[in-house]
C-alpha cells in the first residue's frame, strides 16, 4: 500500500493577526516622497563615532609609539626557509 508523501492537508495558512487598518488621509498637500523617515539603531551611529575618535587620538599622539627592537619570528622563519631552498 503506498504511503502519502505529505501528511498535512494543503489548506492555506490562517494568520492570527488582523488585517492592517487603512491609512488616514493626509491633511497636507505635499507628495509622500517629500517625507522620508530614516531610523538607525544606536550602534550604527555610536560605533563609527568611537572608531573616528580612536583614530584621531592615535594621530594626535604619535610620539609615544616605539619601534620593535627584536626580529619578528615570522621574518626569521622566512629567512630560514629561503636558506633551505637556495642551492
Main sheet: strands, sense, barrel = none
Mean pLDDT: 75
Total strand count, please? 0
SSE run: HH
Coarse structural class: mainly alpha
Shape: flat
Uncertain runs are none
Share of residues in helices = 25-40%
User: How many helical elements?
Assistant: 2
CA gyration radius, whole angstroms = 33 Å
Distance between the termini: 76 Å
Strand content: under 5%
Report on the structure:
- The protein is an all-alpha fold and 87 residues long.
- 37% of the residues lie in helices and 0% in strands.
- The protein has two helices and no strands.
- The chain has helices at residues 42-60, 73-85.
- The model has no long low-confidence stretch (mean pLDDT 75).
Compact description:
It contains 2 helices and no strands. The chain has 87 residues and is mainly α. The longest helix has 19 residues, at 42-60.
Fill in the keyword field for this structure.
2 helices, single chain, flat, mainly alpha, 87 residues
Would you spell out the secondary-structure blueprint of this structure?
Layout lengths: L41 H19 L12 H13 L2
Amino acid at each position: 500500500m503506498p504511503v502519502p508523501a505529505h501528511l498535512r492537508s494543503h489548506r492555506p495558512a490562517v494568520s492570527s493577526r488582523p488585517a492592517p487598518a487603512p491609512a488616514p488621509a493626509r491633511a497636507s498637500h505635499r507628495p509622500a516622497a517629500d517625507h522620508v523617515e530614516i531610523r538607525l539603531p544606536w550602534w550604527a551611529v555610536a560605533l563609527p563615532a568611537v572608531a573616528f575618535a580612536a583614530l584621531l587620538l592615535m594621530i594626535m599622539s604619535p610620539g609615544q609609539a616605539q619601534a620593535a627592537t627584536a626580529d619578528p619570528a615570522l621574518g626569521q622563519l622566512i629567512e630560514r626557509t629561503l636558506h633551505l631552498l637556495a642551492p
